[in-house]
Write a structure and sequence with these properties.
Structural class: alpha/beta
Number of strands: 12
Helix content: 25-40%
Strand content: 15-25%
Radius of gyration: 19 Å
CATH architecture of the domain at 23-167 and 258-294: 3-Layer(aba) Sandwich
Number of helices: 11
CATH superfamily of the domain at 23-167 and 258-294: Bordetella uptake gene, domain 1
Oligomer: single chain
Largest sheet: 5 strands, mixed
Strand order of the largest sheet: 1-8-11-9-10
């Protein structure tokens, strides 16, 4: 098995966090009613930069939930827009939510279109509170910029509940690539324009935009190769089919080592519990929580940040 070289900037003081975009996972719910990026210094790749936030949030269908004093009184469906293997923390959360509510919480992996299919499935679910979802930031921020027309409206159809975790997107490079530092990788890419490749989980995902940000800051040209999800990227990384990828650590760690208020309260309690925090950290993630209002502000801020990155990268809207 090929070794995957982890090019993390902690080994390169001048390239502080070139290893990747911070991702945050958050909780939202289906609505019935309507990080900081710093510019790199000239001549350097990244210096003390906190790359964009990616998060997933729990979304659930809400309507006349105020009258549902016995909620929940049946099983809950938890939609996740990516394949099995990329949903480890989602399943930890689902298990604990089921314990808290005393009802089954069934994870439904609805994959495709960089999570948009899952987000749309969630947005169109009956607004009764029994379909919730965990979505990445792109489904409510960058995709509103990248796609000419989404089948759902993140503002009108989805209501934020809380963040639940974040993770760093690591820059991973295949052992077949003759580079062992970020500087060597950049030098190689500059010497061989368009020869190196990177895998991503779909246009507009952080695995895609992180690489585009890296390209822009490093002034290099590398070719993108889309995949359905991180597990497939990992497989081709190991076989040398692609040169590199910005990817969440979870799938690769073995290779390198009212209803809305009620849901928010239980979610915060779950993510703050010692055992869930430990399991989340062991998977390479950072547990997070927030109020619904705080998450709404984060969504708005991230949309503005990524609008600039998408524009600067020259990414054309998707039909």
């Amino acid at each position: 098995m090929d070794r995957i070289a982890f090019l993390k900037s902690v080994a390169d003081p001048g390239l502080a966090t070139a290893a990747g975009a911070l991702a945050t996972t958050a909780i939202c719910q289906r609505a019935a009613t309507p990080a900081t990026l710093r510019a790199a210094e000239e001549g350097s790749i990244m210096r003390s930069i906190a790359l964009a936030v990616v998060w997933a949030f729990i979304v659930l269908s809400i309507a006349p939930v105020g009258a549902q004093t016995n909620y929940p009184d049946k099983s809950i469906r938890l939609v996740y827009g990516f394949p099995a293997g990329a949903d480890l923390v989602t399943r930890i959360y689902a298990d604990r939510l089921a314990e808290a509510f005393g009802k089954p919480v069934v994870v439904d992996n609805v994959t495709g279109a960089a999570g948009n299919i899952g987000a749309d499935r969630l947005a169109k679910a009956p607004p009764d509170g029994y379909t919730i979802g965990i979505l990445p930031a792109a489904n409510v921020t960058t995709n509103t910029i990248l796609y000419k027309k989404l089948p759902y409206d993140p503002v009108k159809d989805l209501a934020p509940v809380t963040q639940i975790f974040s993770y760093p997107n690591l820059l991973l490079v295949s052992n077949d690539v003759p580079a062992r530092t970020v500087q060597e990788l950049v030098a190689l890419a500059r010497a061989q324009p368009n020869k190196l490749t990177y895998g991503h989980a779909g246009v507009g995902t952080t695995t895609h935009l992180s690489a585009e940000l890296f390209k822009s800051m490093a002034h290099i040209n590398i070719q993108d190769v889309p995949y359905r999800g991180p597990p497939q990227i990992a497989t081709d990384m190991m076989s040398g089919q692609i040169s590199m990828a910005f990817i969440a650590p979870g799938p690769l760690l073995p290779l390198v080592r009212e209803q809305k208020i009620k849901l928010n309260r239980e979610s915060v309690k779950i993510m703050n519990s010692p055992d869930v925090r430990k399991r989340t950290v062991d998977l390479g993630n950072v547990p997070l929580t927030s109020t619904a209002a705080q998450l709404a502000e984060i969504i708005q801020a991230e949309t503005a940040i990524w609008a600039r990155i998408v524009n600067e990268a020259g990414i054309k809207p998707i039909e």
